[in-house]
Amino acid sequence: MGMSEFYGTADASEAVATIRRALELGITFLDTADMYGRGANEELVGQAIRDRRDQVVLATKFGNVRNDDGTRGVRGDAEYVRQACDASLRRLGVDYVDLYYQHRVDFTVPIEETVGAMAELVRAGKVRYLGLSEASPETIRRAHAVHPISALQTEYSLWTRDPEDGPLPACRELGIGFVAYSPLGRGFLTGQIRSPEDLEEDDFRRNNPRFQGENFRRNLDLVARVEEIAREKGCTPAQLALAWVLARGDDIVPIPGTKRRRYLEDNAGAVDVELTPEELARLEAAFPKGATAGERYADMSTIDR
Q1: Cβ count within 10 A of residue 281
Q2: Torsion-angle region of residue 102: left (phi > 0), alpha (psi -120 to 50) or beta?
Q3: Per-residue model confidence (pLDDT) at position 300
């Protein structure tokens, strides 16, 4: 996502180099969406993997609609599902995607209709597996009854543990994999952001409740505890935060979004950071569940809870 917009200035050549470096490091799961850069991100990913499609597990999403006047909406009707998939395949330059997510639940359309249309894409060979994003346990169960859901993507990290209260147990009950987006707390857990002014003017995080005012200060105090433990462990705060997510279970796959090779390589080092039960307990005490100040989004009304 950040390679095309939302997180400040984009650099397409560095983005392509970063994706290709990821493949060299054995990071093969690439996650994009049709709304990132209004299609530009899919085109970017397509360019990066053009001669190496067989090395990639490719995921994209539909459902978040961005209109020309700047407004946004959500669509999950069957006709739109088919249109969106064909458009994504064209932009990516591929015949199929491995995993196709509904990006947000459309509250005006029964999930059975949406997933039914997605299942048709599987039968047509355009999609291999189906996923949902930010869906509630009830929606997950209803969707899974129509066609097997292979993955749920939802924000999950030390500073966002909401999925533990419903979605994650539901996934485990049904045998559904969990994809943790923003596992670095939108960059906050890296320790690189010391002030809201560190973010570029057009960075969407400036409008995120957790990056504002008193919330920012309180969250910075929490990150300082992570930094202290990371120093003692001999790793970076980002590696520690990712190692925590990886330690939550083999069914959880974090997708840290980075725009640059140097941060990618730092993130990749997280697989070598093994946390002992004592270290996990210390992290739990330093950054307890629910300690983060502020909502995840300024408007949480589009999240299916």
Answers
A1: 11
A2: beta
A3: 67
Pairing outcome for strands 127-133 and 97-102: parallel
Tokens, residue 250? 């083999």
For residue 89, what are its two tokens?
């395949």
Name the DSSP class of 275.
P
Element (H, E) at 280: helix 277-286
Angle between helices 40-49 and 12-24 (to 10 degrees): 50
Q: What is the mean pLDDT of the chain?
A: 92
| Among 36, 80, 101, 181, the one annotated catalytic | 36
Looking at residue 130, its pLDDT comes to 98
Task: Tell me if 180 sits within 8 A of 174, measured CB to CB.
Answer: no
Rg of the Cα atoms in the chain = 19
Q: Is 7 noted as a catalytic residue in this protein?
A: no
73 pairs with which residues across the strands?
65
What distance lies between CA 159 and its chain's CA centroid?
Answer: 14
